[in-house]
Design goal:
The chain is an alpha+beta fold. It contains 7 helices and 7 strands; from the N terminus they run ββαβββββαααααα. Strand 1 and strand 2 form a beta hairpin. Helix 3 crosses helix 4 and helix 5 packs antiparallel against helix 6. The radius of gyration is 26 Å and the shape is elongated. Bound molecules: zinc ion (ZN).
């Protein structure tokens, strides 16, 4: 399926590609009190509205009650009064049900929180924060656009090379330089593969969806592998050294000082 034909799930839609079965299907929306769900075409938000239909009744209490403020700020809130028998409303939380597979998706305000809409492995936690956040962005867009994810992951590798002291102008030159400094040759082989797919990936239509998702998975692994071999390895060595008893460490430092004095 081309990206054009893929309708991204959203709180303003009554039909989209299901996050479970991927079929383009009608979606029924329910406030979490499903018994109170509206007609077939009910959606939580009007088009272009910043306040959900259910939150409208809190507008005049804005600034006067914490409940009204929290609801209007889009927080998931359990309202402390019952509306039918023992049921209580939870504001800004919805469920959508797929008419094709009958599976539910759960939303907090405008964001789908279940099922998880990310793809790919988690980033190496030793990566610098800015690279980690680009990596996470790639995981979020990967299910929708493999090409976008691949572009973000190549940016991660570029930033990582700069972080490791390279020039950041040519990925290939930077990796070649890192290999000379001790990075395994396999990284260069993986990068050769990624360069080829990378060139293809910027020209839409050359890769089919299946292939590009595999390329993206290779890129996720490559970023983490480079981080493992450089940042994490060094940190492990540092931690090992720091775990030595104080007297041993000061002995080593004295020895090193003696050497440098000679
Ligand atoms: Zn479905």
């Amino acid at each position: 399926m081309s990206d054009d034909a893929h309708k991204v799930p959203a709180v303003t839609e009554s039909a989209f590609n299901c996050p479970h079965c991927d079929a383009f299907a009608h979606q029924s929306w329910f406030p979490l009190l499903a018994a109170r769900g509206g007609a077939d075409q009910w959606t939580p938000y009007e088009q272009n509205s910043s306040i959900s239909k259910a939150s409208q009744r809190f507008v005049e209490d804005r600034g006067k009650s914490n409940l009204a403020d929290d609801v209007l700020d889009g927080k998931a809130v359990l309202e402390n009064h019952t509306i039918t028998s023992s049921l209580q409303p939870i504001h800004n939380v919805w469920a959508s049900r797929c008419s094709h597979c009958q599976e539910l998706a759960v939303w907090v305000n405008k964001k789908m929180v279940y099922p998880s809409a990310t793809l790919g492995i988690r980033p190496n936690q030793d990566l610098p924060d800015d690279i980690k956040s680009i990596f996470e962005e790639a995981r979020q867009v990967a299910p929708i656009s493999a090409r976008s994810a691949a572009a973000l992951l190549r940016l991660c590798i570029e930033r990582l090379c700069v972080f490791l002291g390279e020039k950041g102008k040519s990925l290939y030159d930077d990796i070649a330089s890192l290999v000379k400094k001790g990075l395994p040759l396999d990284v260069q082989k993986m990068l050769d593969y990624v360069r080829v797919t990378g060139n293809d990936a910027v020209h839409p239509g050359k890769l089919d969806e299946g292939d590009s998702k595999e390329d993206v998975n290779t890129l996720f692994k490559l970023v983490n592998f480079i981080a493992d071999q450089t940042i994490s390895k060094q940190q492990q060595i540092d931690n090992l050294y720091d775990s030595l008893p104080e007297n041993v460490r000061s002995g080593i430092e004295r020895r090193d000082q003696d050497k440098s004095c000679k």
